[in-house]
Each structure stands twice: as C-alpha cells, then as structure tokens.
Amino acid sequence: MSPARRAEVIVVGGGPAGSALAWRLASRGLRPLVLERARFPREKVCGDYVDPRGLHILEAMGCLGRLERSHPPAISHTTTFVEWRPRYSGPIAFYGHGGPLPPHGYTIPREELDAAMVDAAVAAGAILHDETAVIDVEAGAGGVEVTAEHGGDTVRYSARVIVGADGANSVVARSQGAAIADPRRTVLAQRAYAVTAGASAWPGETEVYFNENLFPGYGWVFPATGGRVNLGIGLLDETRRRLRVNIPALFGQFVDGLRRCHPSCTGLELSSKPIGGIVKTYGAAGPNHFAGGLLIGDAGGFVNPMTGDGITPGMESALLAARTVESALEAGDVSAGRLSSYERAFRAYFDPSMVFFDLCAAMLRNRHLARPWLKALARGCELAQADTGFARTTGSFFGGLEVHSSEIIARVWLAVAEDLLLAWPRAFSGSGTRPRATAPGDVVEWQMAMARSAVTDPLWHLRWSIDVQQLFSRVMSTAARAPGDPRAGGLLHGR
After folding, report:
1. How far are the Cα atoms of 98, 202, 208, 299 from residue 228, in angstroms, in the given order?
2. What is the DSSP letter of 202?
3. What tens-digit pLDDT sequence spans the chain (495 residues)?
4. What is the CA radius of gyration of the chain?
C-alpha cells in the first residue's frame, strides 16, 4: 500500500454541498481535497430545482453563467393540484421581493449542476480525485485517516479535518456513529425525465400534486431544458412501511394519472429510466460535528422537511461549515469542542425556518387525516388565489424565502377559526357563498378521522400526538428567541 496522501482538509463527496465547501475554502487560500466516488458528469436522483437563494450562491461561485448557457426556463409561477384539480395557479408569491436574489428559480439537471460546481471549486484551487470511493474513516482530535478504493487499488489519505458531504448514506457519518435513521424524517423518492408534445405548457411554471395515495408526500412536474420535464414523487418512509407501499408502483400510478388527467400529458413519454433515492430531512439532524470533522448537505440532514429540497440548504450548510473549518485550522484545534461552533451556527441559521417546516411535516404524518387535510389545502389554495398577501404568507409552508412561523400560524389559525365559527351559521342560513367554505360535515370529518387514528393504532397515535406537541413548543420557543428568519439575508454578504 502506498504512503498516505496528505491534505489539510478532505471533503468526501463532490455534490452541491461538497463543491460549495471546497470552493469556499479554496477561495480563502486552502487546498481542499475532494474525494468523489463517481466520475463527472454523473446523474443523481433529485427534483433538480434550484431556488433563488441557490442561484445567488452559484453566481458567487462563478458557474451560473455556464449553467444558463443551456437556457433553463426561469421558473416564477406554479400550479398546485389537489386530487388532480388545479386549486392555485399563479406567481410564486414569495419570489421577487427585493434584495440580491433573482425573482425566479431554475431546474438544472444534477449531471450539469454538479459538474459545473466541482469545476468551479477546482478552478478556485481545490483538488479533485473522482472515481475514488471512501470505505473507512478514522477521525480524532489528532487528525484523520481515510481509506478509499480507486481503480481496483486501495489508497490512503490523511488530513487535519474531514467533512462528510457524501449523501444520505454517508460513509463518514456511519464511521462516527452519526448516521441518521428515522423513518419519520426519511423520504423515499423516484423520478424520471419525460418529454411531451405539451412541454411548452411549462415555460416557467412548476406543478405540484397532492393526492390521497401520495399522502404524506407529493408529486411534481418541473420544466427543464430541451423540452424535457423532471417528474417524480416522494413519500414518507414511515408511511411506506406502515402501509407496505411499493414506491415504483406508486410512481407508475402518478405517471398514468398525468396522462389521464392533464391535457398536456396525453402523449407523455419517459425519456429516462425511473431511478429512486432517499433524503433525510432536517428534523433528524443531530450533532453534525465530531473530533476531526463535520457533516454537511444530505449527510447532515440539511433537507427541507416539507419540500424535500436539499440543494440550497446543502450549499448553505457548506458555507457555515467553511467558517468553522477555517477557524479551527487557524487555531490548530480540531477537537469536538472546537468544532461545536458549527452546531451553534447552523442551528441559529436554520432552526427558525426548518423547525417550523418539521412541525408542518409532522402534522401531516397521520394518514388517517389525509382527506380532511387535502380539503383544507384546496380551500387554502383558493384563498391564496384571491388574496396575494395570504398567498405570500402561507405559501411559505412550501419553501418560502423568508419564514416567520408565528405570523404564518396566526394567519392560518385566524382563517381556520373564521371558517369553523361560521360553518354552522352558513349551514342554517344557506349563505355558503364563499368558495369551498367549511361546512359542518367537514368538522365532523376531522373528528371522525382523529377518532379512527386513535382507535386503529392507539400507541402510534399517542406517539404522533406527542411529537406534534413537542415540535409546536419548540417552534414557539425558537420564534421567541429569533423572531426573524436568518436565511432571508443569505450567507454571502461581505464575502
């Protein structure tokens, strides 16, 4: 075996998080070594959507112009379907409200995105060893030893710090006993690319689908380059296990539903083989630091619990980690205590929005409540269609750029209380003119669904209820400590 190759920092994984970290460190004068098991360009299971915050980071890295040469459609509008019926169609209400962020997002295939990002990191001074699969990591305050395979040979590396950016099944996380394993916060997804004669129907508009058989989860159709669309589904792993759902079969049902119900999809044809993957969301994120290293991106659970978006949060976690790595190297101290500053930094940055999203996702976990939740979603969409202020505030449930949890809860509860209080008077007066206003039968349906849940599986229902209560308390305490949303300002000011 050859002598260990030496680097100050080893980054395992060359996806968006790993490349953003390598770029940041290299731009500060370090020479991080990126170990990537695949060879670029390579495909990844992903919805491919990059929101305005992510585009801002790509611009700072110098690779956005390259990605725009393929002319991805600028996405600024969306349509929400509930049981195959469009309930909201219009602008993404929280895009384009000042600041440095662009007023749109892009769908960028990961084979293009990841290649451009890792090239930007290399151009800044990072070193890339691709087709190098890490198989073992030994880390401590005294440094890091890594064993990997490349071209059939075993190779060794040593460094002062290691950063795991190697995805949901992170070897680095497993080696340190930090792997995430929580089916309540693990989502299974399947996606494919497709073409359709009606592809022009999505010039700059995403479509999201909420159906009972996908609950708690959703389907999507995102416009991409070359007349293609990225379409897929995501479902909570807990639900898959409890109901024994076959994910490929569920994906097939979704594609069949598009062909049957969407006027632009009658000629829909898959142009790639459906592939599956998993994401582990922020609610499962534990201590993402250890003696000698950190976890970022999917490896650390930096995925939005409501949308499944991990690209932008992964890049943001990388920028936060870069600060900690630089500081630790300057101090000559890579102990767990020193690296714990990363934990404090990402909690302060992400918790105000992500803990709220975790609460929302937890409330949706109860499959018995699928029908009343979907009816409530349909009503909310129709209110948003008529009220842009309501759309901007409550639309943040699904990935808003500035999330104020207490304001959202207050506004939603006010609308719910009004609907419920007027349900019986409307029934007696016959004046239910408000679109899809709550009726007494809807109230009874909620009560019956809760009762079925409690009777069918009382132990699960109790645990679920406790989860929701604890998360609600955490949301309120987080909002009291940090009433604003740090993510609204981003991480690149004064770079």
Report:
1. 31, 10, 16, 29
2. -
3. 566 699 999 999 999 999 999 999 999 999 999 999 999 888 888 889 999 999 999 999 999 999 999 989 899 999 999 999 999 999 998 888 767 889 999 999 999 999 999 999 999 999 999 999 999 999 999 999 999 999 999 999 999 999 999 999 999 999 999 988 899 999 999 999 999 765 455 567 899 999 999 999 999 999 988 778 999 999 999 999 999 999 999 999 999 999 999 888 888 899 999 999 999 999 888 889 999 999 999 999 999 999 999 999 999 999 999 999 999 999 999 999 999 999 999 999 999 999 999 999 999 999 999 999 999 899 889 889 998 888 888 777 787 888 877 777 776 665 555 554 444 444 444 554 444 555 667 778 888 999 999 999 999 999 999 999 999 999 989 988 877 889 887 787 544
4. 23
Residue 384: closest CA among 371, 402, 399, 396: 396
Please count the residues of the chain. 495
381 is written with which tokens? 């969409």
- Domains within the chain, CATH numbers bracketed: 5-72+108-180+285-334 (3.50.50.60), 183-280 (3.30.9.10), 363-488 (no CATH)
Q: How crowded is residue 262: how many other Cβ atoms within 10 Å of its Cβ? A: 19
Separation CA 8–CA 339 (nearest Å): 15
> In 399-457, where does DSSP find H-type helix?
405-421, 423-429, 440-456
CA triple 117-121-123, angle to 5 deg: 110
Run of H or E including 230: strand 228-236
The model's pTM? 0.92
The token duo for 482 is 């940090």
How far is Cα 175 from Cα 168, in angstroms, rounded to an integer? 13
Which residues, 6 or more positions from 263, have their beta carbon under 8 angstroms from its beta carbon?
A: 198
Whether the CB-CB separation of 28 and 100 falls below 8 Å is answered with no
- Residue 192, SS3 per DSSP: strand
Nearest alpha-carbon partner for 73 in 48, 100, 96, 97: 48
Q: Which DSSP string do the residues of 440-452 spell out, in sequence order?
A: HHHHHHHHHHHHH
